[in-house]
Amino acid sequence: MADIFLCSDHHFGHENSFAKFKRADGSPLRPYSSVEEMNEDMIAKHNAVVKPNDKVYFLGDVVINKKYLHLVHRMNGLKRLVRGNHDIFDDQLYRDVGFDAIYGSRVLSGLILTHIPIHSESIGRFGANIHGHLHANEVMLNRIPDPRYLCVCVEHTDFGPISLEDAKALIQKRQDACGYKPPKDPWGNGSNPG
Could you tell me if 55 and 77 are in contact, meaning their C-beta atoms sit under 8 angstroms apart? Predict the structure, then answer.
């Protein structure tokens, strides 16, 4: 049976993502010393867990410069793109590298998949919002990660994808820890499984 995976904000070829951008503690955002090292590590980690028939939702910002878009073709899986603020190129360029569907957002198993986190007043009808965009940061509520959101930027997932089942378990653990009760049937029994 095919699995479903999630990932976001690869920024293939983006040197600033390791050379200039910093975490809150001042350390580099990413642990790489070259664009090639970063690109190859993320592709290898992706292909180590994603099989050719698995579905993979890329939650935006695959590349900054379209000259690196060809790298996506080397990644396993049936690829779907939820556009991010840097996914500005013509749809056909994304299809040419293997994306078989392109969305603005996607509801999947009672969860909403987006690039930028949705507004907190809009999240009530979903079990949670799985998103990207924030890199090493998270949506916070009372100084802890808001249990209604899960950031799957590569900085949160050791630079590889996370399975939908692992994402659901992490959301459930966070929600249980703070006593949050999502809407009835948040995992969407009967909703689109992928």
Answer: yes
**Which regions of the chain are under pLDDT 70?**
183-194
pTM reported for the whole predicted model: 0.92
Q: Would you state the structure tokens that stand for residue 22, as one six-digit string?
A: 């910093």
Per-position DSSP letters for 42-75, written without gaps between them: HHHHHHHH--TTSEEEE-S--BSSGGGGGGGGGS
Per DSSP bridges, beta strands 149-151 and 129-131 are parallel
Q: Are 83 and 58 in contact (CB under 8 A)?
A: no
CA–CA distances in Å: residue 166 to residues 3, 6, 104, 150, 192? 11, 10, 23, 11, 18
| CB neighbour list of residue 23: distance below 8 Å, 6 or more residues apart | 29, 136
Distance CA 180, CA 175 (A): 5
Q: Which amino acid is at 86?
A: H
**Is the distance from CB of 111 to CB of 169 less than 8 angstroms?**
no
pLDDT at 146: 94
* Residue among 166, 154, 162, 164 at smallest CA distance from 41: 154
User: Phi/psi at 40 (nearest 5 deg)?
Assistant: -65, -40
The per-residue pLDDT for 190 is 47
Instruction: Provide the pLDDT for residue 46.
Output: 98
In eight-state DSSP terms, residue 106 is: E
Q: Are 150 and 171 in contact (CB under 8 A)?
A: yes
The pLDDT score that the predictor gives to residue 185 is: 60
